[in-house]
Amino acid sequence: MNMLFNQFSYPLMTAGALLIVFLVLRRRVKPAVILLIEAALIVIFVGGFLAFRTGDGDLADISGFETVLANDKPTLIEFFSNFCTGCLVIRPAVDALIADIGGDFNILRVNIHTDAGRELRERLGFSFTPEFVLLDADGAEVWRGHTPPVDDALSQAR
Question: Cystine design at 153: which of 22, 51, 119, 149 (Cβ 3.0–4.6 Å)?
Fold first, then answer.
């Protein structure tokens, strides 16, 4: 259940907001006004989704993962979903971390809804988005969490 909510939290949040507006206003406001308010909310939520969605990720297929691991650098993998509110919120912190460590680490941003993302999340195991996995230069997992790794974890991977 937790994985379902996280992976699809943005559309669920949108549906919940629309339902709440309808239930709260249905007896006090004319149906045409409710329809107008809900249409405005839909425009806001869709606009927010289009403006802030995280993208397709870095992997076109699973062979790209093998290629990245072969260069003898530690690897940071971010599993995300375009529909995950937590992924949208944490994105600026992840971008800042990647700017800091990008030269020392392989960085893979993996959309769990792509074919490569589904295959990689099965291979590495997965709980819910966002999820971060650090692999050392040999490809062994050294850290995993639902927030970006801190300096201690990054040092462990080096």
Answer: 149
